[in-house]
Amino acid sequence: MADYLAWLALERRAAANTVEAYGRDLRDFLAFLTRHLGEEPGQAALAALRPADLRGFLAARAAAGAGNATRARQLAAVRGFLRYLARTAGLAPLALANIRGPRARPPVPRALTSDQAKEVAARTGSIHQPGHAERPAEQAARDVALFTLLYGCGLRIAEALALDVRDAPLPGGQAALRVTGKGGKQRLVPVLPAVRRAIADYLVERGAPPPEAPLFRGARGARLDPAVAQKSMRHYRRLAGLPEHATPHALRHSFATHLLGGGADLRAIQELLGHASLSTTQRYTAVDAAALLETWRRAHPRSG
To answer: Catalytic: 132?
Structure first.
């Protein structure tokens, strides 16, 4: 199992969180087999597994309270592990194709209200975190610029933190920001004047950094870690009394939800967010259905 997890991390370049979750899932699976078989399983026991044994594992996890998404991930972890053993240890491949995992429902995005999103974007940097190693003025300007960019352009935090100074949308610059999203797919996103001003103010605090430098930097000059941005948001939301779902990613949800509520076309929102499938964008219709209905009533000629 340790070899499999190391292979996932090094060869497949799986995220650290994924490797950690798969490790927990496999420990759950092996613990189930120990109870199910009456002894710790070896390779011979794994080779003798039947699809019914895997279904029993999933049923046991459901009885323990594991949701659909968790059980689907656990089945993927077990499948990957058994296939790895088939390739590396000569384990006979099992008939896994007919075992369907539970269908996980994608969570409904949780957006902030427009007032909350504006407050986060404009005021997060105004609260200095005690004992913080960074320069307070630069940190404040950076956080305002970052969160204004996330809400004003609907970027994922990884997309924003991947920008260099040369990419910075500044007053008088190009009309749109070129963003590299998932899978290396690029898109153009229009930039509001408020976003340009916030980034310009931040770069003044930076003192004219070179074009190749990271746009958003941490205390030691390296590219800002997402965990630092999340910590800043967490610190602010607790002091400001904002809900727990007020996270950097919630600003992206808020961008989409507020556009939809204002009557924007789903296809346009899909392009702005960089979604590969329209079905992903359609999740936002459940968030602001009331506002969407009101837009229809105002726009449809027979609504009266």
So the answer is: no
Catalytic residue among 71, 73, 156, 217: 156
Residues with Cβ within 8 Å of 169's Cβ and at least 6 positions away in sequence, in order, are 177, 191, 195, 196, 199
CATH 1.10.150 placement within the chain: 2-88
Chain region(s) in the chain for CATH 1.10.443.10: 114-298
Whether 36 sits among the annotated catalytic residues: the reply is: no
Which of 61, 196, 217, 275 does the annotation list as catalytic? 275
156 is catalytic: yes
Q: Model confidence over 206-255: pLDDT tens digits? A: 988 999 999 999 988 899 999 999 999 998 888 888 888 899 999 999 99
Catalytic pick among 182, 238, 267, 297: 182
Looking at 22, 151, 236, 284, which residue is catalytic?
Answer: 284
Q: Let me know if 302 is a catalytic residue.
A: no
What burial letters (b/e) apply to 39-55, b meaning 16+ CB within 10 Å? Answer: eebeeeebbebeeebbe
Q: Tokens 């390739």 — which residue?
A: 87
Q: 2-88, what's its fold? A: DNA polymerase; domain 1 (1.10.150)
Which residue type sits at 57? F
The bridge status of strand 186-190 relative to strand 176-180 is: antiparallel
Would residue 27 show up in a list of annotated catalytic residues for this protein?
no
CATH topology of domain 114-298: hpI Integrase; Chain A (1.10.443)
> 97-128 pLDDT, tens per residue?
556 666 656 666 788 888 888 888 877 755 55
- Active-site annotation holds for 182: yes
pTM of the predicted model as reported, rounded to 2 decimal places: 0.61
- DSSP 8-state assignment for residue 96: -
For residue range 50-60, list pLDDT tens digits in order: 888 888 888 89
Which of 73, 206, 217, 252 is the catalytic position?
Answer: 252
